[in-house]
Amino acid sequence: MAHDPLTQDSLSQDSLTFYKLIILYMLNRADFPITKAQVADFILEQGYMDFFTLQKVFAQLLDSQMLSAKSVRNRTHLAITEEGRETLYYFQSRISSSTKEKIDHFFRENEMDMRNEVSILSDYYKSTSGEYETHLSAKERGVCLVDITLSVPDEETAAAICDNWQKKNQAVYQHLIEQLF
């Protein structure tokens, strides 16, 4: 008998399928990468499942290649795969219209913040010269708007620059445009 990626021994098949479909629906709904934390915030806030079950569901979706994950600094970005889309297409009738509406409402209310979280990137690393390099970027719909690398003397400064980029990127970008055009 072939292994069905939508089943798990310790949970009922219906419950597990529902949990996986919620995640697949969310990922399919977005036209931008979503972080694992963003999905978890919605799922846990709605009380669909507990944290440990959610981690098992994420692992099974990754193992069955229904979603992909990419680590970017301290975040995990998730994306639905073609296999995940096909699964969602065949089983989406198992998601109630009220659950779909909750997800759609969540996106309407939080989409800009969610986009910002995955489109504004910052990271730093120690260079071979002993200084720290900060890499700052802002993207919109997959297009790089700005990409800056700064060398700084210490890790504390590099971390502060990364944190400030998350908060002040729009003002910095606007300043650059005003000064350069």
Topology diagram in text:
Layout: H1 13-29, E1 34-35, H2 36-46, H3 51-63, E2 67-72, E3 75-80, H4 82-91, H5 97-119, E4 120-126, E5 132-140, E6 143-152, H6 155-180
Antiparallel strand pairs: 1-3, 2-3, 4-5, 5-6
What would the keywords be for this entry?
three-stranded antiparallel sheet, 6 helices, 55% helix, 181 residues, alpha+beta, disordered N terminus
What's this, in brief?
By secondary structure, the protein is of the alpha+beta class. 55% of the residues lie in helices and 22% in strands.
Describe what you observe in this structure.
By secondary structure, this protein is of the alpha+beta class. Helix content is 55%, strand content 22%. It has helices at 13-29, 36-46, 51-63, 82-91, 97-119, 155-180; strands at 34-35, 67-72, 75-80, 120-126, 132-140, 143-152. A three-stranded antiparallel β-sheet has the order 1-3-2, with helices on both faces. Strands 4-5-6 form a three-stranded antiparallel β-sheet. Strand 4 and strand 5 (132-140) form a beta hairpin. Helix 1 (13-29) crosses helix 3 (51-63). The radius of gyration is 20 Å and the shape is elongated. The termini are far apart.
Largest sheet: 3 strands, antiparallel
Q: What is the straight-line distance between the termini?
A: 65 Å
Mean pLDDT: 86
What is the CA-based Rg, rounded? 20 Å
Please give the number of β-strands: 6
Q: How many helices does DSSP assign?
A: 6
* β-sheet strand percentage: 15-25%
Structural class estimated from helices and strands:
alpha+beta
**Largest beta sheet: what is the strand line-up?**
1-3-2
Can you write the helix and strand succession as a string? HEHHEEHHEEEH
Helicity range of the residues? 55-70%
Q: Assign an overall shape.
A: elongated
Low-confidence stretches: 1-10
Oligomerization state: single chain
